[in-house]
Amino acid sequence: MQQALQHMRVIDLTQVLAGPYCTMVLGDLGADVIKVEKYPNGDDSRIMGPYFEEESYSYMMANRNKRGIRLNIKEEAGREILYDLVRSADVFIENYRPGVTKKLGIDYETLRELNPGLIYCSISGYGQTGPYSHKGGYDIMAQGLSGLMSMTGEKNGRPVKNGIAIHDIAAGVTAIYSIMAAYIHKMTTGEGQHIDLSLVDSGLAWTVWESAAYFGAGEVSKANGSAHRVTAPYQGFSTKNGNILVGAGNQKLWEKFCKEVIGREELIDDPRFLTNSERTANLPELEKIIESVLVQQDSQYWLEKLDAAGVPSSPIYQYDEALNDPHIRSRDMVIEYEHPLAGTIQSLGFPAKFSQTPGQIKRPAPLLGQHTREVLQELQYSEETIRQLEENKVI
Hints:
Layout: E1 9-13, H1 18-28, E2 32-38, E3 51-52, E4 55-56, H2 57-62, E5 67-71, H3 76-87, E6 91-94, H4 100-104, H5 108-114, E7 119-124, H6 139-145, H7 166-189, E8 193-198, H8 199-204, H9 208-217, E9 234-238, E10 243-247, H10 251-261, H11 276-281, H12 283-294, H13 299-309, E11 313-315, H14 319-323, H15 326-330, E12 334-339, E13 343-348, H16 372-378, H17 383-391
Parallel strand pairs: 1-2, 1-6, 2-5, 6-7, 7-8
Antiparallel strand pairs: 3-4, 9-10, 10-11, 12-13
Helix pairs in contact: 1-7, 10-13
GO molecular function, one term: CoA-transferase activity
Keywords: Transferase
Protein name: Formyl-CoA transferase
């Protein structure tokens, strides 16, 4: 089956999550991704549990559809192998701290001499420039610096980390669309380029409504639980046996909610709740009134009434419930494939459903150094040379 990126070759020198997520998606879409892991221990995520047959499930989740080699690029012979790979590549992606690639001899200026059409993507905590560029940065630091933690959690509570590594994933997604834009440019001009992106910038770019509030009115967004800053009722509420989400996000839905769901039609003409602005201004009182009704019945009762009225709603799932929801399963967001050590494993599916060039699982995450010999043979290295490289601990 044809895939959209089947003619793209990617050399991946990233580890943990942001870079590997990017290259996993490129691999899902057909790119030949060669993951170059450091010698001797490989990607740092290999030490993150849980483990299955001594393989890290965390590593396996972000590294499918890649071939893996283990390479000591601190040795000249290792760098020469990397240079050979670069000559055949479209994309090179790395997530070293700024300055390290120059010391290793694998910076953009060096590699573009070997391949002028190379798309070179750097992912770092703070970017290649600026006063913080020299600092190491993890997802949680980016959440703090971007202001995200200050607006996550309950009102008047301590700052709370987002439940997922959101800046890592934001950086991975930013890298995907940036590489694709550069690839289109390369297809029309033959030119490569350097892409410099950071965890901080990538997540900050997603704060669209919050920037509108600040630039437009000088408002600083704060933590507000599940409630929305400018729309009400648009949040979670307690029921008799759990919690649900209600999204009466416009006047029509608000009136349907009052009439057809909670049976409190008088709220429509209540001066405190006449418009969305007034409902938002008087949200604490509105929450108490709504919740006093919702706690009288179970969640499923209210979800069925909300659906019947056409008011957007949802259960608030635990993660295991989400993965086993019939809709999630029907969309193939949980898939199975074979791993040489772990056997049949489960993974997340492909979020985009292409009619002509769908994502595919062509190979599981590589074992450490699994494809080193195969890749070197493709580069025309002799068996004797490969044996010497192994003896010298280059591969």
